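User: I'm curious whether this sequence folds into something compact or stays loose and floppy. Could you predict its structure so I can see for myself?
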Amino acid sequence: MNSRVLLVTFVFLGAALGSSAKADWTQTVFPVKKHDFGTVAVASKTEFRFPVVNTFTSDLHIRSVRESCGCTTAIIETATIAPGQSGSILARFNTPTFRGKKGATLTVVIDKPFYSEIQLRVDGYIRSDMVFHPGAIELGTINQGEPKSGSTKLFYAGRSDWQVVDVRSNTPWLVPSFKQTERGAGKANYELSVQVREDAPEGYFQDELIVQTNDRSMPNVPLRVIGTVESALSIAPQSIAVGTIKQGDSVSQRLAIRGRKPFAIESIECEGWKVEFSASGDERMIHMVDLTLTADSARGNQRVPMVIRTRGENAVTAKAIVTANIAAEQVAQAQ
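Assistant: Here's the prediction. I'll summarize afterward.
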């Protein structure tokens, strides 16, 4: 009798531990399991990336994803994820073809390092009275230091007094604007624009503008803005690993600096380091630069930007990264 009781106890303990372990690994591998798109317009580009983090010691493989509703399309962006690396599953809300309150459960099937099924969830409301055309402002490639603009059209059909009252951006270098282009019986058309300022940081961005209307029940509607800011200069190597040196020591490095148009180099500076360089004073597309870095006031572990500035009225800057360990000086002790 006692042995049966012990056996049942072990079974329940094992099941509880198994359930707890499963909950633990799914929380770290899938740190986000739910997303609410909120209220969006018809035909707006509405997507969300669920991150997937491989915390195991072997490859994680996503075999498939099933959607419970056609209102959402799931795309496996990284099928095989190496240990310690991250991937993603893209959930795309099908706003051109669906209306009203919609949601979907995405069942992710993993077959390596073991078989398991995990459920993700998306929800949102697609309002039928608003249409963005196109569904997002896609700016493509933007030259850093040069402003660029893009726009989309908003079509509304419904209340005669409906209007856009503001367009907001949470990013200071994305400057939105809007203007009404047409108004009639129960309809209103707008042009929504955004300008990327000269101080936009380098790299890919995917942000949202918030279109604020006088609709009390659903006043705010997101509009996606996408682009890639490319630096006017490219530097190779982009990262300079100095290693361990003593304060006052110097290292040499050759850089290849390429521009979109001919340029001359005005200065190269790196905080904590004395920088000496030789380069042609002529304007050219490519400069081969020999430089010497001397550990001046830099101490300890270093990861600092080295800023290269061009000459002229339309000067631009670019950055490389210097990493080093500046060893402390050894002071001899008097006997």
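Summary: The longest helix spans residues 2-29. Residues 1-22, 330-335 have pLDDT under 50 and may be disordered.
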